[in-house]
Amino acid sequence: MRIFRPLLAVFCVLCASAAAGNEPILTIESHIQPAAPQVVTATPVSSSPAVSGEVKRKNGPTPAPSSRAHKTPSDGLYRAGGGCAGCFGPNGALSGKPGRTFTFPDRLTGSPVAYRGVLYLSCGQTLCAFDPKREKLLWAVQLKSRPTVPALAGGRMFFGTEDGNLVALKAETGAVLWQLNAKGMTFSSPVTAFENAFFAVSSSGTLLCLDGASGKVKWQTETGLNNPTALLFADEILLVGGQNLGYQAYHPVYGYRRWQGGDGTSMDVSPSWSDGTAYFPDTRGRVRALRAQNARFLWTSEPFSPLAAPLVVSGERGWGVTADGAVFAVGLTEGKVIWRTQLPGRVLTALAVSSDGHGVYTVTEKGALYALDGNTGMVQWDIPFGEPPAADPVLSGGALWVCCGNKLSEVR
C-alpha cells in the first residue's frame, strides 16, 4: 500500500484562495519587534588538557584521498546530509530586523533544509517544499507517519519514516520515485545522501546503503550501536556514533568498518567534519578531534557540559551550544575554548552560523532568538518569539528562518 495520499485540504484551500483572489494558506503576519539585548557576558576560557581515546582500526582497502570538496551552496545547505554540519548562510551578520511570518496548518516538526532558495519542511505528517521568495507552497505530500529530516542529492529528496519506510521524491515536484519497506526500522534523523547513494542507520544499529535512483539495497551491515547518531558522509567515509561503542567509520562503497574509537563514553550528538578532520561530541561534554581517514587523534576539548547539537565548523574555528544554554567557540588547531557565553535558558536547537563566522544564532527553549558575534561571543540582539522552537533555525537567501509552533518567521 502506498504511504502517500494527496494533501487535499491544503491543495483545495490553495486553489480556492487563488480563484477567489484571497490570501493563501501561508499567511503573512505582522512583524515581531526585537527586544533590547539582555546583558549576557562572554567569558574567555581555556580548554582542559587533551585526553586521548583508544582507536581500533579494521583492515581493508583504503580509498585514495579525494580532491572533491563538499562545498556548501551559496543559499545554505544546511546539515549533515550534504557532508556539512550546521547551517551556513551568506557572509556577514544579520541586523536583527524581523521580516515576514508564514503560518502553516499544523505545527512544524523536524528541522528545515534549505536548498537553492527552497525550504523543505515537515508540518506534522506532511512534507512540503516552500519558496519564501515567491511566498509559494510548491508541493506537499502527506505521509502515514512522521518523516526524518530529509537529505537532498542529484535532484532527489531522501528520507525515512517512523513506520520504517525509506522514500525518495523528486525534489522539484514531490513526485514519488521509489519507496522501500525496511521492516519496521526507525531511522536516525537526518538521513544522508551523496550523488547516487542514500545512507540511513536505524535505532537498532542497522546501516543501509541504497541506490539513489532505484532504491535497491547496495549493502547492509550491523554497527552494534544502540540509538546511533545521524550519519555524516565526508571525505569519502561514513561517520557515526552511538550510546555504547563510541564512534565508527565505514567505507561508503563496500560497507565494511574502517575503524572504531572511543573510551566507552556514549554519543548522542552527530559528528561534524571540516578539512579532513572529524569532531565527535560525547555525553561527558567533550569534543574529540580525529583525522577522518585514519582515526589519528588530534585533541580533546571540554566545553563544560554535553552539547545540544553538532559542532559547527568553518575555517579555523568551531562553534557549539550546550544543553544548559552555553554558546562557545573553539579553535580547531588545538581544541582550546576561545570564549563561552551563558544564555538565560536551556537550548535544544542547533546553531546557525554565517559562512564567515561573524554571526552565530540560536533559539532557547522559551523561544528567544539570540544573535552572537562569532569572534567575541557578545550578544548583538535578541528577539522573543513567545513559544518554544519547533526546529533548528536555518540560514537561506540572506535571511534566518525560525520555526516556532506552526509559524515560520524571517529575520534579516
UniProtKB/TrEMBL annotation:
It comes from the Bacteria. Keywords: Signal. Residues 173-300 form the Pyrrolo-quinoline quinone repeat domain. Gene3D superfamilies: 2.40.10.480, YVTN repeat-like/Quinoprotein amine dehydrogenase. Residues 1-18 form the signal peptide. SUPFAM superfamilies: Quinoprotein alcohol dehydrogenase-like (SSF50998). The keyword Mitochondrion does not apply. Residues 43-73 are annotated as: Disordered. This is PQQ enzyme repeat-containing protein. It comes from Jonquetella anthropi DSM 22815.
